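S.,

Sequence below, as promised.
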Amino acid sequence: MIRLYRFLRPFTPFIIASVLLIFLQALSSLYLPTLMADIVDKGIARHDANYIIQIGELMLAVAIGGMLCSVASTFLSSRVASGFGRDVRARLFARVETFSLHEFDRFGTATLITRTTNDVTQVQMVTLVIMRMMVMAPISSIGGLIMAYRQDRPLTLVFAVALPVLAAAIILIARASIPLFGLMQTKLDRLNLVMREGLTGIRVIRAFNRIAYQTHRFDDANADLTDNAIRANRIAALLMPITMLVMNVTTVAILWFGAIRINNGGMEVGSLIAFMQYVWQIMFSFVMVAMLFVMVPRAAAAAVRINAVLDTEPEITDPAQPTEPPTRLDSRPAVSLDDRAPAALAAELMSALEASPTVEFRDVTFSYPGAEEPALNGISFRASLGEVTAIIGGTGSGKSTLLKLIERFYDVDSGSVLIDGVDVRALSQQSLRSRISLVPQQSVLFSGSIADNIRYGRQEASEADIMRAAEIAQAAEFIAGAADGLNTVVAQGGSNFSGGQKQRLSIARAIVRRPEIYLFDDSFSALDFKTDARVRAALRQETADATVLIVAQRVATVMDADRIIVLDDGRIAGIGTHHELMQSCEVYREIVASQLSIEEVA
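The prediction came back faster than expected:
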């Protein structure tokens, strides 16, 4: 947990001020019993009313000063702890945002949410307690011992028995409770996972009538967390009665031996009263330390989990000196603008355009972490500017994996993926992804309005740009029919839209960006054939100056592509147009035969 406290550096002035105020508060608490002893021994014993009033006024001033110091120190400590929690959460979120998909898979979404929220809260609470207790407790205990020793030396021998007993109880209870408090965070992860699955998968749960099963899963996880918390808190609960027992026995012992010393003339009544107050201050200091022993183990476990995220180095990182690929015009072969006929010049321009590959795979092999077989093996192809390249194949053949490698969600095991002749690993991630628009397989919408979701592709897009993108994606009609048009609220996860509507909004979001490369990952599966055809026809015109890669399951979606790549078990089974593949690729013919009738194929 100490490693996390590097985030406290910006708050150093507030911490120093808070410690100073707590120190003054502790001094005021230590001074008050001495003043009370003076009132009893010198004022009341001598019947000196003026002295009693004078010392009473001083006590009142000291008490008010201590109260003001307490309020100010509490305010500063709370501000420091809150700012510390804010900074740690921000750093956690920033680090998680840099993770590759492998790191997300390794940690899991549920535990990352828990670590960013509950774990940080645990450390934040303990930080507040530490700032108060770790200063107050030592000053109160050590100062109390010194002041008690000044009041009566022989009587302080009582502490030689009481304090070791109390310290031993604290240590034994802490050793027993620390492992249990550490387990609580892991069990909380499990509870959050079950809860998250139950909420996000509610439609499937109800469709299969598995509400009772899901409730049983939640009850098991909840009971497991509860049982662990009860065991931990039962042990921690022993601390208070043991402490009170030691304090009360110590009080009886002090009163007993103090009365004997007063009777013998070795001690005054006021000194005994002050001594008792110092005893309670010392004992409560140990109680505060004991509270820390209860809270710190859970916070320490949370800190370990937070540091595990912060210490994880993402596998996908930017190179030390990123390379910027040439613009598409620079990457094309030079064309001399002489006096040739327009038709010849146009042909040469087209030839230069086709000779400029935008996306290229060179003998790419890739395996998912822990997989026994490669997901892709020996993949080589070229997707040129102005072309539509379609990728088709059976389930698990590696179609979506190809697009993930282009976006550099994962890095290849061998070979290379090139953008305009530059390996994607030589590009900064921001530069790479700024050139690409992705429409994912699972449509993702964010809370906000329709306009906000489309504008997510390009923040500066005007309303006219948004509507134009919506028209191309065939979304303008249902947007116009919505109650508030572009300002219609999108519920969490887009639950107030159908699958086809969400898919069209995702396509509009990609279009409004106007990138160099479009990636469509089975992005037309929720559309009917008529809408699918209309969207692809509109996209043809919109993406004429870009490179388009389409992953699809339906043959009808890829038939008109300039180039079709057929994947089979992670290998390329054929490349060509629809008619070429019908003649040369058995795998493609099987896919076509499974989807189209003889008349449609013809």
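Residues 328-340, 348-355 have pLDDT under 50 and may be disordered.

Coffee later?
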